[in-house]
Structure formats: C-alpha cells, structure tokens
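Deliverable D2.4 — example input (structure tokens):
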C-alpha cells in the first residue's frame, strides 16, 4: 500500500492510494492518512489504484470520513476502483460517503 499526496494552491490535498488496503496495511496507512488530512483544508482521496480492500480498509475510509467531519474539512472519495465500488455496495455505504460512485453493471 502506498500513499502519495499533492497539495494545490487552495491547500487541497490530493491523496492517491495504490495497492492493497486490507488488514495487513490499514494500521500503517492510518497515521499517514490522518497526517495528510491534518495538513490540508480539504482532501480528495483518489482510489483508482486500490487493487484490494477488505473491512479493515473500509473501516479506515470510515475513520477518515469521520475525522474530516469532526474537523470541518471536506473529504471527497474519487476515482473508485472496482474493488472499492464492490465493498461500498456490499455494505450499502454509498449514501454514507455521499460521493458519486460510478456503478458498472456486471454482465455475464
């Protein structure tokens, strides 16, 4: 799991997650994501390169959402990978995160 952050002129943090956001990496990612959120006025979390996510990774996304709400910083989840879309749909959390999610139909 890797996190790369870029800040724009408005101090918006664009955080790019890549790799597996699972039980093996969530504990390492937690302080990195919280530190990135702390340094910015708002955050866009780009999830296109998340290859795998389990409930530990989902809990981390919920934690970041809660911390952003607590501190009054807008958080947007962008570019959802298929793995992220699947787990958000599985737990019916699209409304919780409030971000547009491109839902692709599964055809046989």
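Example output (designed residues):
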């Amino acid at each position: 799991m890797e996190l790369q952050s870029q800040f724009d002129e408005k101090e918006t943090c664009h955080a790019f997650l890549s790799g597996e956001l699972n039980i093996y990496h969530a504990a390492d990612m937690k302080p990195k994501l919280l530190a990135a959120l702390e340094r910015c006025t708002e955050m866009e979390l780009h999830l296109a390169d998340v290859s795998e996510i389990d409930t530990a990774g989902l809990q981390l996304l919920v934690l970041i959402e809660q911390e952003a709400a607590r501190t009054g910083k807008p958080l947007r989840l962008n570019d959802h990978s298929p793995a992220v879309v699947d787990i958000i749909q599985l737990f019916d959390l699209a409304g919780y995160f409030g971000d547009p999610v491109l839902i692709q139909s599964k055809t046989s």
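The CA atoms of residues 84 and 90 lie 10 Å apart.
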